[in-house]
Amino acid sequence: MSLPLLLKDPLSQLASELTPETVHRLLPLSIPLNIPPDQLYIAAIRSVLEPQPSAAFATVKPMFAKLRDLPLAIAAAEKAAEAWPVTHPDHAEALLMATALADKWRQQTASLTTAEVAPGAIPTVRSATPPVSRHAVRGLMDRAMSAQCIR
Fold first, then answer.
1. Cα 95 to chain centroid, rounded
2. Which residue range is the domain that position 67 belongs to?
3. What is the H or E stretch that residue 47 is in?
4. Is residue 95 part of a domain?
C-alpha cells in the first residue's frame, strides 16, 4: 500500500485490513485520514459478513454498539440480517438489534424535538434527523418476532 493511494482513497485501502480484531488498532488512523470512525466499523462488519455469510452475528454484534450514527447502525443491522435465511437465529438477532437501535434513536430524537418552551415561543432545540415513528419501530419488531417464530 503506497502513501498516495492511502491518502487518495483511505477507506478502500484499509478495508482489507479491517476485522473485528484489528478495527480498534486502526481506529486512531481515522482522524489523520479524515474517515468517520463509523465507516471503519461498517467496513469491519462487511469484512466478516461478505466473504463468509455463515459467520455468527455474535462476531459483529459488539461493533454495532460502537456506531454513533444510529440511522447507519439500524440500516447496517437490517443489512446484516439479510446474510442469513429468515429461519436462522442470527437473522432474528440482527433484526432485534435493529429494533433496539431504532428504539434508542426514537428516544433520542424525541428528547431533542420536545424541548420545553413557553407557549408561542420558537423552540431553540432542533433535531438533526427526523424522529423515528413508533410505527417504524413496531415494523422492525414485527419482522424480528416473525423471524423468531419461524425458526
1. 12
2. 9-114+125-150
3. helix 37-49
4. yes
Nearest to 102 by CA among 133, 60, 126, 81: 133
Question: Could you say which DSSP state residue 50 is in?
Answer: T
Please report whether residue 85 resides in a domain: yes
Cβ contacts of residue 105 below 8 Å, gap of 6+?
70, 71, 74, 129, 132
Q: DSSP for 61-86?
A: HHHHHH---HHHHHHHHHHHHTTS-T
Sequential pLDDT tens for the chain (151 residues): 555 555 677 888 888 889 999 999 999 988 988 899 999 999 999 999 888 877 889 999 999 999 999 999 999 999 999 989 999 999 999 999 999 999 999 988 877 655 554 555 555 544 444 555 666 666 666 666 565 554 4
* Measured CA angle at 22 (ends 32, 92), to 5 deg: 115
Q: Among residues 103, 107, 29, 28, which one has the least CA distance to residue 73?
A: 103
